Amino acid sequence: MVLLHGKLVVVGDMTVGKTAICHVAGNEATAYPKTYNCTNLADLVLKQIRVPDSDDTVEFFLFDSSGNSVYLDALRDVWVTMDMYCIVYDVTNRSSFKNCAMWLEQLSQSRGDHNIFGVLVGNKIDKENHRVVSTQEGKQLATSRKMGFFECSAKDNKGIGEIFKYLASEFVTRYRTRIRTLEKMARDNY
Ligand SMILES: Nc1nc2c(ncn2[C@@H]2O[C@H](COP(=O)(O)OP(=O)(O)OP(=O)(O)O)[C@@H](O)[C@H]2O)c(=O)[nH]1
Ligand SMILES: [Mg+2]
User: Which InterPro entries is this protein grouped with (predicted)?
Assistant: First the structure.
């Protein structure tokens, strides 16, 4: 059994629903913010997740970043020690999807040689009639960048638990692999 602390940065264009996702994730069901308050720089939300089918727990520090580009320079300092990332777009807003490549680039500039991983998340699937980005397009982008892929609705609290269960189990798996590698190196040196 392990308890790990993981720093997760959440990025994406303004109004895609990053704060809504973090609030719903952090406070379980009824925390969906109906009115829009743009995030200034970044907010921190804590969330504990029990890894499915195990006794392991991950405590996430969610850095809910602003989508406003005026904060980009300052945000890079916040992102520098992250363990994993979540890039969010709005399935009813094509430019928010196009900009995911830019957000990925910004993250890779700040992460240095960190061994991090991430997920791509299409939010607002409750607005199916207004959807302009297909599930297939989202999947393709995620696969090409070796990211996990999810769609969700913060409004309906749909699909959010799955994102965090995936990130938690991936984080623990990577931790155990690192430990095994270190143990092997120690054995080989003695
Ligand atoms: N229909 C619908 N609206 C949503 C959903 N998630 C968020 N919203 C709405 O979209 C607006 C923006 O949500 P936020 O979570 O504040 O967006 P953000 O990505 O944090 O924006 P910045 O902080 O400016 O970067 C708010 O009015 C939310 O109520 C969703 O799943 N479905
Ligand atoms: Mg926000």
Answer: P-loop_NTPase, Rab, Small_GTP-bd, Small_GTPase
Measuring from atom 29 of ligand 1, which residue has the nearest CA?
34
115, pLDDT greater than 80: no
Q: Is the backbone of residue 68 left (phi > 0), alpha (psi -120 to 50) or beta? A: beta
Give the range of the structural domain holding residue 72, as residue numbers without chain letter. 3-184
Number of domains present in the structure of the chain: 1
Q: How many whole angstroms from 155 Cα to the centroid of ligand 1?
A: 9
Assigned token pair, 184: 């092997």
Ligand 1 probe mutation, 15, 41, 88, most atoms within 8 A of CB: 15
**CATH number, domain containing residue 140:** 3.40.50.300
- The dihedrals phi and psi of 172, each to the nearest 5 degrees, come to -70, -40
Total-model pTM: 0.94
